Predict the structure.
Amino acid sequence: MTGLFSEVFLSALLFGAVTAAIPLLLAGLGEQMSEKAGVLNIGIEGMMLAGAYLGFVGAFYSGSLWLGFLTGAAGGVAVAMIMALLCVRIGLNQIVIGIALTLGLEGLTALLHHFQFSRSYPRLPAADATIIPLLSDIPVIGPAFFKHHLIVYLAVALVFGMGYLYRRTQLGLNLQAAGDKPAALDVAGIDVIRTRTIAVLTTGALAGLGGAYLANVGAGLFIPFITNGAGFLGIVLAMLARGRPVWVLFGALLFGVCLSLTTAMQVAGINIPTDVIQMLPFLAVMIMLVLFGRRASLPAALGIPYERGAR
Amino acid sequence: MSGSFSSSVAGRDIVALEGVTKRFPGIVANDSVDLSIRPGEVHVLLGENGAGKSTLIGMLSGLQQPDEGRILVDGKPTPITSPRHALALGIGTVFQHMMLVPTLTVAENLLLGGPWWQRPRTEELEARVAEITRRLGITVKLHAKVSELSLGEQQQVEILRAMVRNSRLLILDESTSMLTPKGIDELGALMRRLVEQGLAIVFITHKLKEAAAFGDRISVLKLGRKVGEIPPERFRALGEQAIISEIVELMFGKQKDDPEAVERPVRTVQAEAAPLLQVADLAVAPTDNAPGLSSISFDIRPGEILGIAGIDGNGQKQLAEALAGQRAATGGSVRLEGVAIEALSVGERRRRGLRYLTDDRLGEGTVGTFPVSINFFLKQVGAAPFWRHGVEQRGEIDERAAQLVREYDVRTPSLKTPVARLSGGNIQKVLLARELAEGAKVVIFNKPTYGLDLANTLASRQRIRDTAARGLAVLLISTDLEELLAMCDRLAVIANGALVGTVENTDDARTRIGRLMIGLAA
């Protein structure tokens, strides 16, 4: 047990936590926007997978991580367009379509990967870290939080960007109205369908980016089903965060620690069956749901397609 | 918006409908309706449920488009293609159901609809609101959450929103249905100030008194057709009673006085008979969102109607639920035919003859997606003869349901129709049939005519009178004092969860109840 509280172990644990948290953060922020606008986006797992696959392919062939992030986000948006068309425009059931998209993308990305790489799993070179001067010299905290890829800092900045968007901008008002009382938004002269479409496409971009980060930076490779429920964790985060982006960040970090613990404890050679350790994040989800789930407040029109004039 | 008041000289139509027809599958909602809307006038659209008022509003506010005919704005034919377009033309609508986002503040609601790339212009809005509210003599809490406002305040916000957007025509759809009597008077005064400033108002209602009190011009709709109009000249020449009888003639095609003012028939309450229902010191603990009850005591004898008067939200629903067993009482006794029932379950109380007609007809009264036939027997599920050994007896159910549909005149396409598709009046008939069925001894009616049109209101009241005439004890809870005065033998007033007094329904009952309601001794 001596290794458990050493500086190296702790900073590795926290570094891993941040790396694991970023995809959850991006997915959670994306889901939060959809839900605010009244669209329950179960397809987010599929969007992340599309992002992970296309992000990896983009980075693998171009040699540029940034291009990979771009193709990943584009992949998420492509899936989100299907979702927006079927659920927002045509008004089909959001849960059914969401599940179908997730299952479909699981199969499709696995199939494409198999065609392309057969059974080999090529790796990307390790991502360059942007080391923040001074801060990164702090013991434990420094190496854990301030030696990440640039996109990590951008993702954290996005939390505050989203907070500003929801609290201070016209678009933020429109999004909330679309989720809480879409008819009121409609008679105020704003197109509900368009507002919700914007939200769903943004969700796709963020989820795709999260998937691309997961594959390209977190793992350095793509394997089928790599997201392993990250999108669903994002849905839980968005529901527990009660519309506040900063709570998504805290939640993502908490889950990140759990996910990181599973690796760290195995590395530290603690004598607990790995199955038990791998259950940790999901146990954490259940504990959080029991503790805070009752207070989760969801938009009144969540999951209900909007139809003008319907009563 | 370019159209200023100068372009709308009094006497010229701001908006006119010419031969507008709108069809929905199975019905003609509006059948070649002509309408002229002028500045400086309150134009009342009067009609019963299903007369086509809401469809007409939908077309004026851009939610729906007419199938035939045309809409003229400032004399030019103008198809109103969307809500945004209607707003741009200066047509603002206050819908029957509130169109505010409850989780946003008043200011944020007023700002909804601005260009999305802009920061909300709060300062500009505040200045504009200050100017308008000063002109109209209303006060609005700009930074309060909408969910914290009363319905009357929310409505003022909606009117204010129309004004902020430079509306020239304000449409008020059934705006008084959720207001207190005081709120209704205030709305009437506000409408007067608005038309004096050159606005045109279309005021939709199904209440004759409001039409006569607030209107300048009245159009009467019936089954989608406009059956008559009283122009302002004629309106001013007639007294209120004359206007009402003229409207009644237009609506029902025969001359009669205010149909709601039915003479109260003299009923013989068996004064010496033992009370059917005896309630003593009933108490209920308050909850987060509902007041408690305390010291509730009353008796009801066979054939008697006891009214519960009071302002909505003073514990009426709690009282009904506590008696029916749906809400736990913390003290006191309830006796049915002398037998204590306060510890019995909801089902047992019902079996012993205590029936409760909820005011929440679709929420707790019926299961909307179930067919009409099953809804008649919701409270007997599993009981013979309609269920045997856990299996539904379709034949028995349909036979009895068909009988009830005939007996209670439920207008339904078939027994299989989901009950939510029926109109409010017919859903109420289903509830009446279910609760008044065999074995009833004491019946609690909670707001039995709320939201019903005139014909169904009168039918429901007659049904309640018949119930008492059969020798049942009736507890009638209503917020409509006229209704209580027309129906009850005695009236009790509820305030803050307690009965503050009981009066016999004699000639001076109205003033005595009024005094009790505002906290004075009768």
User: Anything to note?
Assistant: The first strand of chain B starts at residue 15 and ends at 24. The radius of gyration of chain B is 25 Å. The CA atoms of residues 109 and 161 of chain B lie 8 Å apart.
